[in-house]
TrEMBL record, chain A:
<dbReference type="InterPro" id="IPR011013">
    <property type="entry name" value="Gal_mutarotase_sf_dom"/>
</dbReference>
<feature type="domain" description="Glycoside hydrolase family 31 TIM barrel">
    <location>
        <begin position="293"/>
        <end position="612"/>
    </location>
</feature>
<dbReference type="InterPro" id="IPR017853">
    <property type="entry name" value="GH"/>
</dbReference>
<dbReference type="Pfam" id="PF01055">
    <property type="entry name" value="Glyco_hydro_31_2nd"/>
</dbReference>
<dbReference type="GO" id="GO:0005783">
    <property type="term" value="C:endoplasmic reticulum"/>
</dbReference>
<keyword id="KW-0325">Glycoprotein</keyword>
<keyword id="KW-0378">Hydrolase</keyword>
<dbReference type="GO" id="GO:0090599">
    <property type="term" value="F:alpha-glucosidase activity"/>
</dbReference>
<dbReference type="GO" id="GO:0005975">
    <property type="term" value="P:carbohydrate metabolic process"/>
</dbReference>
UniProtKB/TrEMBL annotation, chain B:
<keyword id="KW-0256">Endoplasmic reticulum</keyword>
<feature type="signal peptide">
    <location>
        <begin position="1"/>
        <end position="27"/>
    </location>
</feature>
<dbReference type="Pfam" id="PF13202">
    <property type="entry name" value="EF-hand_5"/>
</dbReference>
<keyword id="KW-0106">Calcium</keyword>
<dbReference type="InterPro" id="IPR009011">
    <property type="entry name" value="Man6P_isomerase_rcpt-bd_dom_sf"/>
</dbReference>
<feature type="domain" description="MRH">
    <location>
        <begin position="388"/>
        <end position="489"/>
    </location>
</feature>
<feature type="compositionally biased region" description="Basic and acidic residues">
    <location>
        <begin position="317"/>
        <end position="330"/>
    </location>
</feature>
<dbReference type="Pfam" id="PF13015">
    <property type="entry name" value="PRKCSH_1"/>
</dbReference>
<keyword id="KW-0175">Coiled coil</keyword>
Amino acid sequence: MALLLRYTPFLLYVIGSILAVDKNAFKSCEQSSFCRRLRDVKAGESKYELDLASLQISENSVEAKLINTEVEAQFKFSLTAIAGNIFRLQVDEVNPLYPRYRPQYALKAEPQVANALEGEVQPANEDPGAWEENFKSHHDSKPKGPSAVGLDITFPGALRAYGLPEHADQLALRTTGSGGLDPYRLYNLDVFEYEVESTMALYGAVPVVYAHSPKYTVGVFWHNAAETWVDINNSKDGNVMSSLVNLVSGSKSENSVEAHFMSESGVMDLFVFMGPKPKDVVRQYASLTGVAPLPQYFTLAYHQCRWNYNDEDDVTSVVENFDIHDLPVDIIWLDIEYTDGKKYFTWDPIKFAHPDVMINNLTASGRKLVVIIDPHIKRESGYFLHEDALANGYYVKNKDGSVYEGWCWPGSSSYLDFYDPKVVEYYKDLYSLDKFKGTTNDVYIWNDMNEPSVFNGPEVTMPKDCLHYGGWEHRDVHNEYALAHTVGTFQGLLHRSSNKRPFILTRGHFAGSQRYVAMWTGDNAADWSHLAVSYPMCLSEALGGISFCGADVGGFFNNPDVELLQRWYQLDDIRSVKSNVEEPYLFSEDVRNRIRTALRLRYAHLPLWYTLFWEHESTGDPVIRPLFYQYPSDENVFDIDNEVLILAFYRGGSIIPRKDRPRRASSVMHNDPFTLYIALDSKKSASGTLYIDDNESYEYKNSNKYIYVHFTFEDNSLISNLIDKTDFPTKEWIERVIILGPPSDITSAKLTSKSLGTVTLETYYDGEQKSLTIRKPGVSVREPFTIKLF
Amino acid sequence: MEMRFTKNFKLINALLIVFVFVCEILSSEVPRPRGVSLSRASLYPPEKDFTCFDGSKTIPFSQVNDDYCDCPDASDEPGTAACPQGIFHCTNAGHKPLNIAASRVNDGICDCCDGTDEYASGKACQNNCIELGRSAREEAQRKAELIKAGKQLKAELSQKGIQMKQEKQVKLNELQKNKEEAEKLREEKLTLKKEAEELESAALEYYRKLEEEIKKKKAEEEAARNRAEALENFNKFDSNQDGYVDITELQTRQNFDKDRNGEVSEEEAKFFLSEQMQANSSPPAESEDSQGESDDMQDGDEHDDAHEDDEEEEDHEPEHHEEENEEKPTDITYDDETQKLVERATSARNEFYEADKQVKNIVGEIQGIKDYLEKDFGPDEEFAALEGQCFHYEDHEYIYKLCPFEKTSQQPKSGSVETRLGTWGRWDGTETNKYESMMYDKGQSCWNGPQRSTKVRIECGNENKMTSVSEPNRCEYLFDFVSPAACREVPIDVHEELHDEL
């Protein structure tokens, strides 16, 4: 099942950004005390030794004391085998001054212990920034003093490393190092007008690295939610360091990749995935942090968003205009202006006085609504949410225990502390229909600004010495805040509509976010370079477990010219979660026609995407895949990150189920028939799958109400079979079969199935297309059938 | 082949056939495939094989509307959603017939008021054509009455407009005559001015030479004084009288101690050394000039205050420069005769300027009227009366303003600055009626977006009034405006169409 999307390379070279990120607003490694300290530690100069006398080896684990030879501090070292060819390496202090934080949400469950590697734990030298740190006008008090952890990992034999989303950079990780690139920074930040080709932090953080060579692929997951920097050294880049290592080890310049993880606080907890292939490491990672549950079908269709829709009439007329111009659309998005003065869970009493009527108008034509809910809460007396949060202590606190106040869209705001189970319980209730009045079961949620974004905070986020539930400092939990927020939203939607799969789009994210949300690449720009970088960005997220990744079509900042806009629509696949540009009907007729063609193609392929998402949930395999994933031993593809496997360009050997009848929305396509596209390989065979259920509920899980069809084409016969012994009462049928690169001299076809018996079908060649069409098999997809060519 | 077809059809929906049959009997007496209008029924003779309209293929008639697209032009599937480009016709008896895209057929959403587009989706659509037809007729009736009433008002407006243009034309003719006279006068004054100036110039020649001599003398005296001063200073610093001022000599002088640390460093000394040399090498006149410039700046500030609302600073330099550069009055006095000639020339000049101004004024006025006469106020000048007026519309947040043929704007009720939503651009209606909307473009730019613009939709009404404002697309505003000027007879097609297929 591999299709290939390829876009012409000229796109990559047309780069001319007029936007610029303000780099001074964000720290470099040199400006971050712990990064500076840990980076100074040279490999091979470890002051830590394992006390072999304390070594205890059991069936599944190795435990020992780890001693710092300089200060005689004791640590507990353990190495455990986890089910599925995974190892877990943990180091913690035996007598800690303060307990160290362990992320609460990244792992889907505590890993099951089952039935080698090199690691060096590095100490920190005293640095003036160890006990307090100033950045711009912000002061970080660091009451617990230095607590950074770091680890060097070497992958001998590796040719490339991938991972560490989210960065607006190429897919294969570049060599960083003092004097050159700053380390890849993982610290969720609201970066205004971010730039491409950068290792600067962005909105999300997934601390997983995969090291790859033609022979094997391994990976590591650094289970830590604090600010993290990762230096990468690939010996192919001719770094002095690696040549030294080669000299010392005497190895004959075997390539290797090193990853140096440096986190400001938290526990040292590393998972090692033993591969041996890209598919295996990604699955191993998914076995720990989980997979994306199958989204509702409509979420894969076209979303229209604009900042902003002014009022109810505006929303209604936008949809009308889409219909007038015969452009499909499934979801309309409302940005912050729908609220009453930026108070979430309220509606503007004048512009959105009848939200229920507006929503019913939308759903009457098969559409849905998404509204924004951010984690900052307006500090306005009389606002129920603020009053409740104040009265019950639901807000994040300052280090002195008072409520923390920062600036965001509403002005003075405070931030809900989602680490407190009471807050999550309270928050989840807010989404119920009697609380969030005017919403219906067809309203879904957009969680933005949840890095969290604080306009007047250090690096536009919350001070690190703020306090969360359980006494944890914000520094310990920062990268997990958005995930904790979206867990609350997810529970809220489930609580509200128990048999509808939630849809939440988030900007901030962390390892494990895929279990709850889709993400998008934030406020990108209407620029060719941003269109280009959306490929490696989403591919990297997909390897990091988050397949449901998109970019604003057309960019958020600035307006794209029509050429860029059309290309963006044409290259639009699942990477585009929403479109944030002028509605496509506003453009000239020829532009509009091209966009319509592109959108129809997207809608035609929805069954394929939906099938891939279901397969992702079952196996952990990413929905979008870079070429090295599919062809791990072909070194030519290791650096290709502008192509996504799937769509537009069918690889020989695949069978693609499509819905070629255009409709105004995906929700009204459910009874439409399929056209099967069979692209034969050199052996004149092909195969493919198709997954079908009710597109919205959990019946597929709870009552096995789905069908999973396997198509094979061999020896001039198309055979359709159900893979699982399940059923779903669908009305969908096969209207057409198109064979690409068909056998010659076919004059007719015979279909055989239980309900139809044997019927003769008309066939005809299309000389131009070099294809053979089988006319109207008319058989239901529910029943197995065979079509034999004559 | 026939058998296979029946079987497949049975599989999809056996009920469908019955339903189709019943529907066709009910909707029309002329048998024709579903989704075909009465006027096209003859294109589908059931006793023959069907050939696609584009001639690309011939298929058995049983394959028409069999839910499979055979013809690239969609002609074989007028009643199903099988062809992407297909068109479905609903009769909508009691209301207007409608053509919808085939993609709307059986999609679970009622598009035709007679519900015929949802014959197999399971969606029960109500037939509300009668009600819709009735209210459409009522609406048409109301409009017709409005137009009838409005036509009288429009005629008055039109008369007013024509009259205004006529008056302007009369005025224009008058001005053109005045212009000729004024130009003649200017010619005369110019001749007088030239004569007076020639006499004046000759008389002043003597004094000009005299003045130059005095100036020259003064300059020489000044130079001598400067040299003496420089020498005195030099000798003061040149403590060792070696004919050179060196750094150590300067370092002994506390007044060169820039940083007030009690010592004159080498840098400080060097600084003053070069400063001093510069000062000596520059003529004193320059320092006077720089004094003048700083005055200028002050003037400039005042000037800015007076034009607060202009965002761009005006370049006011030349005006002041002139003043500053004017020669200072010398002490020379003219003899009586010269004085008289100068005065006569001055008054000739003034008279000429006056006459010239008069001509310019008239030319300006003529241009204004010409612009007005060229303005398109509608075929009968019916919109002319709107010019110069402004109309307001308030919503809960803003006051919107429409000043026809000038601009559109928006002002928050809280009273802050007005935002220009557009500047009069052009009539922007359809081909059949260009005067049904106006375009005001080139307004203020939106943040991260385009320039604002406003479309003003004009409909017939019995008064001039703004009735609504919206922003259908970002930074693109839509005003609705009613005016008797827009009342015109439109061919009412309701009756013809209603009877089309009954």
